[in-house]
Queue: 2 jobs
Job 1
Amino acid sequence: MTLSSIAEHCFNVTRGYLSLPDETAFISETKEAINLTRHQLMEIVFKHWDPFSKQISFSFNGGKDCQVLLIIYLSCLWEFFMQSITNSEFPAQYHRFPFETLPTVYINREETFETLESLIESTRIRYCLSIYESPRNQSTMQAAFSDYLAKHSETTAIVIGIRHTDPFGEDLECVQETDSDWPKFMRIQPLLHWKLANVWSFLIYSGEEICGLYGLGFTSIGSVNSTIPNPYLKESPDHYGSFTHKVNHFKTEQNMSYNESQREGIKVSSVSAKDLEVVRSKEDTKFFPGWYLIDDALERKGRI
Ligand code: ATP
């Protein structure tokens, strides 16, 4: 894949989602969420920063939120390129997609699951990311971003997949400057309004491979030492004797997935033997997959 072809693919995936029948409230709400993100990127962000100027970088750590945002960001990049062709006096054959790789930053400070590392690597190849990976010895996130900015001084804005329901996410805005104790750049946060259910719904429809740890009951992934499968997904009834929140709400998205091969089963990356061992050493019960959980308040119950 080239960046141009994967951006076109992401555009088609996003358009495919927007034309799904409104069979569930999740689908109609997710369409609204996509449309708002698209509006923010196309009408606000790309009007201020040319997305092909290298002023904008993408922050990526292999998690589900930045994966959703990556697909929609690339979709908008394709749309922006197509608009530039339409507005040009020169015919389409004289236009080339201006980027070959997407400037991306990954801060790797903690002990990371091998499975997540492998997904980041396969994502790098599939989505043509030029990933800057911070050296492991960075003391804080701030120091790691300072180091990135020192090496990529053209960067003035960084796209981040944070949501309002994340810790400290409640009062954030789509475009805002970093706090005073951070290195200076503009934070571009076009996923703030997304709920957990919207994230699963879109990812499952997309048919793109997601991190295998989600298949083991993880719902948010931190470092090896600080993350376990979400206890609310244990394959046993809850304390009311009920399984109410342990169902797959996204059967329509799966049955109508953009990727026909995913209709048989959701595409998760393979989990490394070492990670399986780590998970089994902490938990000996079985868990439903992460996408069975849609309550935002419980999303981080596996982060310790
Ligand atoms: P999950 O919660 O399932 O792990 P996620 O990692 O995408 O998904 P968060 O952990 O809430 O979501 O992080 C929010 C966003 O912050 C990410 O989507 C990413 O854009 C950015 N981010 C977080 N950690 C890093 C990191 N180590 N390197 C680069 N970007 C990061």
Job 2
Amino acid sequence: MALVNEHFLKLPNNYLFADIAKKVNAFKVMHPKADVISMGIGDVTQPLCPAVIEAMHKAADEMGTAEGFRGYGPEQGYDFLREAILKNDFLPRGIHLDIDEIFVNDGAKSDTGNIQELIRWDNSIGVTDPIYPVYIDSNVMIGRAGTVEDGKWSNVIYMHCNAENGFVPQIPKRRVDVIYLCYPNNPTGMVITREELRKWVNYALHNDALIFYDAAYQAYIQDDSIPHSIYEIRGARKCAIEFHSYSKTAGFTGIRCGYTVVPKDLTAATLTGERIALNPLWYRRQCTKFNGTSYISQRAAEAIYTPEGKQQVKATIDYYMQNAKKMLTTLRSLGYEVYGGENAPYIWMRVPDGNSSWQFFENLLYGANVVCTPGVGFGPAGEGYVRFTAFGSHEKTDEALDRITTWSKK
Ligand code: PLP
């Protein structure tokens, strides 16, 4: 008899964005003429930049020739992309990585989920709350999270981030083996200062803990004092794995490409105290379970590091950040308490009048025909907040803000 992995059955069978879609569809059935604007889902809307399109055309043409055809590529990614990553994402920040420390992937989601295969099932994990749900769900699937009660997993240590503590996660009193950090943060849109990040690196070094650092939104950082990579902090090479994504950096949500950094200095212990390097383990894992990202996607990613590519990608990020600025200004002028949005494409808003985040979601949908994301979908500390994304077009964003203004003044 084949036995199912019962840990899957512990997962809540409601998926946040599916629930939102259901509620929006129900509204549309009742109001077929309503033009609903989504500021909910974190997908980009602006087209790929010309440098990327050109690189993809060129790569496709190459693949159509006997000399240029490529089959399976290296599991870690092509050198041309890994070299461009080292040269552009790290060297200018004084970070010297080896090419074999870079693992190109098909986007950050897979690796942020899969990375937990490297650690034993009984490690404790700590997450900021609210949080990108993949970190917890992937640990639930392997049985590491324990059981759920009141929206919290018994073996997960939650580090609340809310307006009261300035969205700064506090180092937990209980020992934690693995800490997930995501900055700039999804969903709150907040960032971490160098000093605060240093505290986490020091904690990990002194307590033999690991940090899984998700930098998927680093390209949105506007303030130069904010770290783009955890490796800007001394000692992080010995305790941190970092995830990058081209999805929000360059509109690659449909193309699929990103990368993970697993430094060679990084080790974890066996039960007998032997130190094991994680880089070769991850390499082994990737060779077994991953056959590389498509050549065309990797050429597309390489193109964003060319002078034209850099300029074009920045223009799109600036475009979204203009939305974020307008959203912050408008929502603040209406008296709402809003956070984030200055170094990230997300705005985190406290729900007024003590309503629940789902209640506000419904009120906004029915009152202004605008969709936001209920904060509780990102964890217990998200209750009482909603998330707005700045990924819309200027026109849709302006229209949504006008509607929110009219609705709020009623
Ligand atoms: N990490 C965070 C924090 C995200 O918000 C997302 C996507 O929304 C991802 C990772 C995954 O990005 P992708 O798999 O598209 O690279």
